Amino acid sequence: MSQSINNFIEAVAKRNPNEPEFMQAVKEVAETVIPFIEENKKYEGKMLLERMVEPERVIMFRVTWIDDAGKTQVNRGYRIQMNSAIGPYKGGIRFHPSVNLSILKFLAFEQTFKNSLTTLPMGGGKGGADFDPKGKSDIEIMKFCQAFMTELSKHIGADTDVPAGDIGVGGREVGYMFGQYKRLRNEFTGVLTGKGISFGGSLIRPEATGYGDVYFAQSMLATKGDSFAGKTVVVSGSGNVAQYATEKATQLGGKVVTMSDSSGYIYDADGITAEKLAYVMEIKNVNYGRISDYVTKYPNATFVEGKRPWEVKCDVALPCATQNELNEDEAKTLVANGCICVAEGANMPSTPEAMHVFQNAKILFAPGKASNAGGVATSGLEMSQNSLRLSWTSEEVDERLKGIMANIHAACVKYGSDTNGYIDYVKGANIAGFVKVADAMLAQGIV
Ligand SMILES: NC(=O)C1=CN([C@@H]2O[C@H](COP(=O)(O)OP(=O)(O)OC[C@H]3O[C@@H](n4cnc5c(N)ncnc54)[C@H](O)[C@@H]3O)[C@@H](O)[C@H]2O)C=CC1
Ligand SMILES: O=C(O)CCC(=O)C(=O)O
């Protein structure tokens, strides 16, 4: 690593102690973007990356609410307003007990580059709370969402900052937060995306991240003259992204054999068909249950407790659960088992060591900021529809999503191809994402 990269990382680490996930994301970007800055005088000496790693604003707040037993509960809420150079802050809200400043800053930093890649006018943001939705009643979820929005509403707006869902926040939670915002502000605006269809949501937004991930993988496979047809696919997670990645990979002729949650994974050698996926959706979206329930209905499948699915032989891997869920040894196993393509549906699911294994093996590897950008891109389309007070059809939104994913792929190829034809999608995504934000920052002066 060059001295300038080392110096940069050391300075950021000193300023942000105890933030390992944030530093992991910063390091990955610095390693590819600093050499690009040094080769392009227009960007040199302008402190652009130094400014990008410093959030424009961090909001931390107390969230108090009363549970079903009448006991007062206290949580911590956050919103990271990372970068608004190219549009209003935009990014999801995560409710999970692991949520802390480091995780949300890494997500907001990644989001800035990802949103830039979509080519839509959206800056980077992320938020959440250390609230654990597991085991909570519907009323408790509503009370928490209302308490959270009571404070958050002071800092967001349709032209300022537009949150959406992430882990632990789906259509139900977005609906409760939207209702509370409307009550407090007495305005019906597109302040959140991922809304229900009856109150300004966009068709295809629920599907968009998973579908987009598979469209991106399809473009990657096409560079080798290949496709999903007949491929064995391993998916991790069983939430929003995993469900629709499974659906689209199956529709394109792949056979998805695993899904998982934090308790373990299910392996179904016959493939998770549309009918079986409908049962996963019932387990996860209606009953808020565990993936192990799958084997009670489909006993030919097995549940492997406490393990992740990367030991299962596959052609394509789609990590769709959470950060750092795929380590170096697991990456080696995937490569040794013949995996040819990894497209991240989650944010930063591969550790840096795992990423290097994929890159050294020269298999197709896409970082989440490129391959999972379909979700936020479709949120951008929801914002456009809200502004126009129009609703587009599923076909229209899906076509736009496909076009956006193809353009992101092309941008990665443009900035990530080496002289031997190998496409470094990490480098490509980081540089392409950087350029648009950097140009806007340069044009707007030192602000
Ligand atoms: N929902 C969206 O539109 C987008 C989501 N993402 C990312 O995709 C990933 C999944 O998010 P969603 O599907 O929306 O969330 P979700 O809440 O619907 O599902 C999360 C899934 O991850 C699993 N999970 C969570 N923590 C885990 C752990 N420690 N070990 C194993 N599994 C774990 C859960 O069991 C669940 O299956 C996250 O990294 C998120 O940031 C990225 C882009 C957009
Ligand atoms: O749709 C959005 O605004 C947020 C999506 C998101 O959180 C992500 O891309 O990680």
In short:
This protein has helices at residues 3-15, 20-39, 48-52, 101-117, 138-152, 171-185, 205-222, 240-251, 274-286, 294-297, 328-336, 352-360, 368-371, 374-388, 394-416, 425-444; strands spanning 57-66, 72-83, 89-95, 123-129, 161-164, 232-236, 255-261, 264-267, 302-305, 316-319, 341-343, 364-366.
Describe how the helices and strands are arranged.
Elements: H1 3-15, H2 20-39, H3 48-52, E1 57-66, E2 72-83, E3 89-95, H4 101-117, E4 123-129, H5 138-152, E5 161-164, H6 171-185, H7 205-222, E6 232-236, H8 240-251, E7 255-261, E8 264-267, H9 274-286, H10 294-297, E9 302-305, E10 316-319, H11 328-336, E11 341-343, H12 352-360, E12 364-366, H13 368-371, H14 374-388, H15 394-416, H16 425-444
Parallel strand pairs: 3-4, 3-5, 6-7, 6-10, 10-11, 11-12
Antiparallel strand pairs: 1-2, 2-4, 7-8, 8-9
Helix pairs in contact: 1-2, 2-4, 2-16, 4-16, 5-6, 7-8, 7-14, 7-15, 8-9, 11-12, 14-15, 15-16
Bound molecules: 1,4-dihydronicotinamide adenine dinucleotide and 2-oxoglutaric acid (AKG).
Key traits:
single chain, 447 residues, alpha/beta, 7-stranded mixed sheet, 5-stranded mixed sheet, 47% helix, binds 1,4-dihydronicotinamide adenine dinucleotide, binds 2-oxoglutaric acid, oxidoreductase
